[in-house]
Fold each of these.
Amino acid sequence: MSVRILALVGSLRAGSHNRQLAEAAVKHAPEGVEVVVFDGLAEVPFYNEDADVEGQVPAAGAKLREAAGSADAFLLFSPEYNGTMPAVLKNAIDWLSRPYGAGALTGKPVAVIGTAFGQYGGVWAQDDARKAAGIAGGVVLEDVKLSIPGSVTRFAELHPADDTEVVDGLVKTLASVAEKATPAAA
């Protein structure tokens, strides 16, 4: 039985290096690991408890929760926007944290990685995403980190899937996440 990892990408930009990093994770996932990139974070409305009523949950929020519910673990890809994670990623974590104590993140392994233009590869944003995911109920894998600096120059002509050092880091990350996950019964 394979481990299903849901990838949430915090950048909506066409050509995003974090999106490319997620694509590389899909391409190079080790045997027994399936990485699924969630498309649709741009459509998920800002979390509002008034809208989070059974039978009235916005379709995009329900779709996110459904995808997360079928995942064994999560891999969050975060660039750094003004020193923190993008709002779209924080919003996804907010949706997945509810209902309180029983959200789709609860009890499941979560790793946060990413790339950014700065010299530290977005570590502040990734630390914030780890904090939020842990408070939301996820089992944050604090020792699983991959922060790739200089994205604009590093990936100007090379896709992350073709960067040997990046692929090695991704494979190790995915193996660590999969090791902590328990595959859901099919």
Note: DSSP finds six helices and five strands in the chain.
Amino acid sequence: MSTFNRLVRALVDPRELPGRPARTASSPAPSFTPTMALRPREQVMLDTTRLDIMAVSDRGVAGQPELTIALDAATRSILAAVLRPGGTKAVDAALLVAEMAVPHPVRPNWPACLQLAHASIPYERLLDIDARLEHAAARPVIVPETVSVDCGNIYLSSAFRAACETLGVSVQPAPPRQPASKGPVERTFA
């Protein structure tokens, strides 16, 4: 009888689809709270998606690559990205956090306008603070205060948590079954 009732409720409420956990009357629908970040690096959202393409790796293996990005909630800027040919691992998420915090060197074939020296920032003052910025590309170097992650295994792993702890980054898990909590990063993937 409960299966029949669930199917009838699915006709009335599309959120009550078969195969989804049944909602009870005591649990109201979760309210939507938009993400508020007032300054860059305050909150960075991490997420992974499987790309809708087929790719062939250098070993000749075909598969769907996965893209993991770090999105600053205040500026909606992509701070770092990791592209994997197969399933994303915990070390890839840790690498993503490290990618945000390290300056990237300018590649030999890049135009001079992409050098940090040509950006409209106090380059000489930054060079006095960190000599690694001498041949760096004009991209932000950010250590986030908080990273917002879903409850995937790669973000719950000890490797990822250790990388965040080393940099002094707090990890904030998103509420389960509430995809709107990380809406900006989901819209970026779209």
Note: Residues 90-101 form the longest helix (12 residues).
